[in-house]
Amino acid sequence: MTDRPAPDLADDLSLALAIASDADLVSLERFRAQDLIVETKPDATPVTDADRAVERLIRDRIEASRPGDRVLGEEFGGEASREGRLWIVDPIDGTKNFLRGVPIWGTMIALAIDGEPVVGVVSAPALHRRWWGARGLGAWAEETGRGTGASPARLAVSGVAELADASVSHGSLQMFDGAGRLDELIALSRRVWRTRSYGDVWQYMLLAEGSLDAVIEFDLKPHDLAAHLPIIREAGGRVTSLDDEPAPWSPSVVATNGRIHDAVAAMFRRDTGANGSTGDTSSTGDTADPAGRPAADAADPVRPGTTA
Q: Which domains are seen in the chain, by residue range?
């Protein structure tokens, strides 16, 4: 029996898109359900029966289609290995929104190869929106669930080049307070055009679409960020951390359109000291095109059931 050939990224992206479509059916059926089961995990965060059902579906599909790959998921764990092929899954990012009936939540599916996220799919069915990207294949978005039949749209970050003109989204005030960075956030708010906390999955996709110019968060895990990275980078943006660990392995993230990245990161950078922080670090492929264009030149998007 011969080994099956290794899939290329277009095949992996097509698989992730198909899985996301099926996952949306499961999550939407439980959204605003009167009998939704909500429990509290040991880390004091909530989990619903929908979170677990979606992750089981994703794991089953990956195991069937990519039996040699590993999976790291929010609800059922796994080894956070930076070697080989690792699927990183957040079944419902924004569980607190989900259980309160707020439509800003989504399923995130990423593939990392040797620690670098190279495929990302983010699906927000309650917003009727899906985004995806893969290294060298561009970043794309489409409307879902409305039968529009519109073609996917290519994503590109904004061309905003000055902090004074920038629209910035950030994590909760409690998040920044807990990280000891509330003063820096207030200082940033005084220098930019606008700050809001759009939160969770949506803010990163608004960045990739060019509607926001920067996102800053702390207290993250790999599943909170991995799927965003290929999309933002392929849209021409930049993503780094504020410590020695590259995204998505760091608990901190600065994601921008690239043009204002250094200025935003500088507002939160601290010299090496008691907290061990050494400034922002970037991974290969993090430099945005100086004209704000997408980093890749893909003629056609990958869609469910197809390959590029």
A: 9-152 (3.30.540.10), 163-282 (3.40.190.80)
